[in-house]
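During the reporting period the student researcher (J.K.) took over the structure-prediction task from the postdoctoral fellow and processed the backlog of single-chain submissions. One of the processed entries is reproduced below for the supervisory committee.
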Amino acid sequence: MCIHCARWSGQPSTDARESAGHFVLFPLALPGVIASFLLCFLISFDEFLLAFFLAGQESTLPVYIWTQLRFPARLPGVLALGSLILLGSVILVLIAEWFRRRGLTPTNKKVDTPFS
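J.K. obtained the following structure tokens:
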């Protein structure tokens, strides 16, 4: 609404990007975000169920976290463990992205492609 008022009055719109993001991009991206959230939840839930039923006497990480969540006194340790796992995952993704971008940098060699 503010964009239309600014256009009619002849003033430049300062919040055109915010309005476009809020009214156009967010509704378009929302189904993908919800789908990825549900997919990640289902995959992790399936991982826990398999580990819980097939673990036997040895405790795997998902089962260990589940058993520790039942005791409120041990909750800070479980939260710290989850934070470390998340941090490690982010670091691995950043390293992989760095290597990917490093491989995309132009070199001094000329590569003949059929379309160039």
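The committee noted the following: The chain has a mean pLDDT of 77.
J.K. will present the remaining backlog at the next meeting.
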